[in-house]
Amino acid sequence: MSWFDKISAISLTTIVILVAIFDLRERRIPNLIVFPAALLGIALNSFESGLAGFIFSIKGLAIGFGLLLIPYLVKGMKAGDVKFIMAIAAFVGGAGIVRVLLITLLCYPVLAIVAVVREGKFRVTWLRFRRILFNFLGFFVSSLKLYAMLLESYDDESIASATTPFGVAIAAGTLIALYSEFLKTIL
User: What is the DSSP secondary structure assignment for residue 57, as one 8-state letter?
Assistant: First the structure.
């Protein structure tokens, strides 16, 4: 590992840990961390590889943004998550951010299960999961839509769902991608 790789890895590790802690405590991702992080990723790659490093970072930013645009537009995630992914992408580039996102998507269900168990909301989570699933499947088999409506009548909307900050999953996915070979051969 070159000195550049070490500085980049230490910087990115520090950033994702800070964001994860902040997201756990405040349930938001601060621009004060992610914007300078993106600039640092661009600067480090530009310093190391010149124009090619700059393009590497900008491609990563664009791919990170593009991959999360639709989930953001349908309110599947918040803008802070998108900006966090873009900051990471400035360090790891396009292929790197695809790998980070794939690993993140594998980490998120584990973190969600921990949140459901910690908050004691298994029953309501299972009900809402089935309702969403059967609502979706109702597009293909209409009788399943009726079952989803029945499940909705059992739901107590006053009970909040368990929440899992996606920034923590992003941080976990980034650290796994950074310090392991997991999924490296497919990208």
Answer: H
Residue type, 147: Y
Q: Which of 55, 63, 18 is nearest to 36 (CA)?
A: 18
Distance CA 41, CA 45 (A): 6
Q: Which residues of 156-169 are buried (b: 16+ CB within 10 A; e: fewer)?
A: eeeeeebebbbbbb
Tokens of 173: 């996915």
The SS3 of residue 155 is coil
- Cα–Cα distance, 5 to 183 (Å, whole number): 19
Mean pLDDT by groups of 10 residues along the chain of 187 residues: 88 98 95 98 96 98 95 89 98 97 95 92 90 88 89 88 91 97 80
According to DSSP, residue 162 is labeled: P
What does pTM read for this prediction?
0.85
Question: Other CB atoms closer than 10 Å to residue 43's CB: what's the count?
Answer: 15
Token digits of residue 87: 């900051």
Yes or no: say if 15 and 33 are a contact pair by the CB < 8 Å rule: yes
Alpha-carbon distance of 185 to 36, in angstroms, equals 31
- String of DSSP letters for 80-142: HHHHHHHHHHHHHHHHHHHHHHHHHHHHHHHHHHHHHHHHT-HHHHHHHHHHHHHHHHTTTSH
